[in-house]
Specification:
Layout lengths: L5 E5 L11 H9 L4 E8 L5 E3 L20 H5 L19 H7 L6 E6 L9 H11 L6 E5 L2 H10 L4 E6 L6 H8 L3 E4 L6 H9 L3 E4 L5 H10 L3 E4 L2 H11 L1
Parallel strand pairs: 1-2, 1-9, 2-4, 4-5, 5-6, 6-7, 7-8, 8-9
Antiparallel strand pairs: 2-3
Helix pairs in contact: 8-9
The protein binds SN-glycerol-3-phosphate and magnesium ion (MG).
């Protein structure tokens, strides 16, 4: 029998609170998620901030690109009201603020670098510096669809784990992971086949699948032997996986 997968709260517990906000992260902690996934960008004044999209329009009452707004300007926006009135007043968090908030938490933080379609010069170095400053290098995995960005992370800090995000059915991705120097692959869950999970395990490559919310998908991934499941409903995934394994 495989070990129980680590359940990562995708953008926090984002089915229950506005994604990538303190409220969503607090709920992830309350649900005892073993991991939390976040997305990061750089503000106009070079601060690492947590948000999924390049623009603030969908998840706040503001408009425009994060790269064109200073942290002070971003902090004037409401990032909770779009989700429901209960969350009016949520503001964007910097990576430092989240790490301070998680200082007593022993879970794994998965930081996804949003390095495309926009490119943020210096994002990798800033993230590495913040992780060093707040002593979170050992319990973090950096992921990105931009694998050049992950290579840059490895050059800056070889001990930091990296996970290769991708969509689609790659052939022998464990070989590619080794070639790039990655500890993990982060495939979209529906592209995974049992042989890939098996070979990754044989080759010491971690498999963290995203983003599975339906019980049947969560169960199939857990039975298939993935190391991590990234989900918007960590409470559901924790309950299901604790019952079955
Ligand atoms: O890291 C897994 C997942 O978050 C990747 O896609 O668009 O939700 O950031 P996205
Ligand atoms: Mg993400």
């Amino acid at each position: 029998m495989n070990n129980k997968p680590i359940i990562y709260a995708h953008r926090g517990s984002s089915a229950y609170a506005p994604e990538n906000t303190e409220a969503a992260f607090v709920r992830a902690l309350e649900m005892q998620a073993g991991g939390i996934e976040i997305d990061v960008h750089l503000s106009k004044d070079g601060r690492v901030v947590i948000c999924h999209d390049e623009k603030v329009d969908r998840v706040s009452n503001g408009t425009g690109y994060i790269k064109d707004l200073t942290l002070k300007e971003l902090k004037t926006l409401d990032f909770g009201a779009w989700f429901s009135d209960e969350f009016i007043g949520e503001s964007i968090l910097t990576l430092e603020e989240l790490l301070e908030m998680l200082s007593d938490w022993d879970g794994i933080l998965n930081i996804e670098l949003k390095q495309g379609p926009l490119q943020y010069e210096g994002l990798e170095a800033k993230v590495v510096n913040i992780l060093h400053k707040l002593k979170r290098v050992d319990s973090t995995i950096i992921s990105s669809f931009n694998h050049y960005s992950l290579r840059a992370i490895k050059e800056l800090e070889p001990s930091l784990k990296i996970g290769l995000l991708y969509v689609g059915g790659l052939v022998e991705p464990w070989k590619y992971a080794k070639y790039v120097g990655a500890e993990a692959i982060h495939p979209v869950f529906y592209s995974l086949v049992p042989s890939v999970i098996h070979e990754c395990r044989e080759n010491g490559i971690i498999v963290n699948a995203w983003t599975a919310d339906k019980p049947e998908h969560i169960q199939a991934l857990a039975l298939g032997g993935v190391h991590g499941i990234i989900t918007n409903v960590p409470d559901v995934a924790i309950k299901l996986t604790s019952q079955m394994l």
